[in-house]
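ok here's the first one, seq then struct tokens
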Amino acid sequence: MEYAFQVRWGDTDAAGIVFYPNFYKWMDEASHHFFASLGHSTWKWFQEERIGMPIVEAKCQFHVPLFFEDHVCVKSSIDDLREKSFRIQHQFFRGDQLVADGYEVRVWTTFAGDRPKAAPIPAELRENMRQTAAMTTREEGQ
């Protein structure tokens, strides 16, 4: 799944280089875009079903800097799918150049009770995620 954007002035530091926390913001945006592309609104899940996907682990490695007005494409894929959690991998490209890569581990969580609680990912969504992961693997093997 791809999520594209252009670096804004406010994303950069005094040296004109993207300030590193923005990569984590963009991974979050790419994750929400990933589910929207599968036909699922994460906001609607939360509003209607009290379901969310909190991040329990995140990492990003930076290879080359990004600058104001760079066009960026984030390629996201599920690389580990479990009963209640998943890991989504993100690769940041400027053209064909890999500029950073990272991942988030998220847990399917219900907020319906007193405290947030991990819950099984619904079977239909798991299957959609599995199919998307398989498609990505096939495309990379070409």
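and now the second one, same deal
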Amino acid sequence: MGSLLLCSEVNLPPFSAGAQTPCHATRFQVRLGHRVQLVLADEIDWIEAQGDYAGLHVGAHMHLLREPLQRLGSRLDPAQFARIHRSTIVRLDRVAEMQALSNRDHLLRLRDGTVLRASRTYVDALRAALLTGEPA
């Protein structure tokens, strides 16, 4: 179980030889008992680490993916997702506002009202990604 890449059918590296377009995960297979459900990357609001699993938050639902956050983060499109904490990744277009805290961390409020903490380590890159739409 894991993420499905656009280039996965032919086992291409992260950059395909024919074009310099990166290959990012577009959907993920998550287990629901004996069934497998596909979750589109475009539907994910934010992701949290849960040991060797990643919790994919989609609306009011959370799906466990058997993949560590570190590896999952490298498969996501950096123009759409940004790491905000060592245990959290957020979809950039879901961020509604940022509020600075006294220790240089920030609180993020997502469009659905969810509040997440962004570590000061990641705030500058997050701000740049939000303003330009490109990873820092």
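notes on #2: Residues 33 and 128 are 40 Å apart (CA to CA). Confidence is low (pLDDT under 50) at residues 3-17.
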